Amino acid sequence: MNDERLGAEPSDDLPQDERTYFAESRQGKTRGQALGPGADAAPAARDEHFHGHRDRLRQRFRDGGDRALADYELLELLLFRLIPRRDTKPVAKALLARFGSLAEVLGAPAHLLTEIKGVGESVATELKLTAAIAHRMLKGELKDRQVLASWTSVIEYCRAAMAFEAREQFRVLFLDKKNALIADEVQQTGTVDHTPVYPREVVKRALELSATAIILVHNHPSGDPTPSRADIEMTKLIIDTARPLGITVHDHIIIGKDGHASLKGLKLI
Q: Locate the MPN domain: which residues (predicted)?
């Protein structure tokens, strides 16, 4: 039989875990209605308020841009498309409460996102897609530009790529003779506090790409970007390996949730 004739709600194409979460919310409202008049708004009134809220939020964004909205409201706007015809404010606030900031929500691993009630694999995937698009945009800002003259863009790009990773990553930005970006590659992924680095492999890859300079980057999942003794010694070893082959190591940047550190800026190399 046709579901509409039975009065069933049209499918939202939600994965089962998201559907279950919002079904629970509907059941709670139904129980409220059973308590008597005034316990909950009539369905038509609820729908009008619901759609009115979304329209008002969209209008505020159109009029004032992102500055007109709090972080949870921006996240709500994104979730509107991912979770249609449902109140997404509780989900947005739960995500921010769990991860701390909008950047950390988008940087969180998908399997941790799905631990939030109301977020299933499809929503987690879309959030990661949003993060990937933002990262690609930042990378695009570096294309065909002198990296050393766009240092702020370099830091923003590296933070977007690595600041909220749960494990250490060691990546290398390979530059040509004009210091334009040739390639950005993750060389190694390690544990929460260690990544094995092989200087010969770094230099070998630079030669394969005809790079004349490199910038080393790795993250500290602890959040503190302060370089360790091992970080400094490893950097000096790569410098000593690269120099005889005409490859310059411009810097080693350490990225953390709490900021970044430049070994060159700290005069450690």
A: 147-269
